[in-house]
Design brief:
Keywords: Signal. By secondary structure, this protein is α+β, with helices and mostly antiparallel strands. The protein has two helices and six strands.
């Protein structure tokens, strides 16, 4: 195998390992925040949290529809639903940026973890 091919294989293996670890942590009942799967397994969401900033758009929706709207919207990586509004977000997602908000629901598209 050429060095460039070996490097590529190593990067792919690392990316798969990180994705598997992220799913395991998010689905783990021992994690600090309880994440649940929705939208046919495409979205992780949690109650009482929000992502600040990085707004892409805002729409009037029910909380259950916010994740589906994010999936259908190009460039949407994560979202916050609060008081009847779905705030679609874009950009890098850091779970450390999740803030507590008793009135909100937040979520992340699975592919962007």
């Amino acid at each position: 195998m050429a060095p460039s091919t070996r490097s590529y294989v190593w990067v792919v293996r690392l990316m798969v390992a990180v994705a598997v670890a992220a799913v395991a942590v998010l689905a783990s009942p021992t994690s600090a925040r309880q994440w649940k799967l929705a939208s046919n397994g495409e979205v992780f969401y949690s109650d009482k949290c929000e992502f600040k900033g990085k707004d892409l758009s805002r729409s009037v929706t029910k909380d259950d529809d916010c994740g589906d709207l994010c999936i259908r919207t190009m460039r949407c990586t994560h979202f916050t639903w609060r008081n009847g509004f779905c705030y679609l977000k874009q950009g890098l997602v850091f779970l450390s940026n999740v803030k507590y908000d008793i009135f909100s629901v937040c979520g992340v598209r699975r592919r962007y973890l």
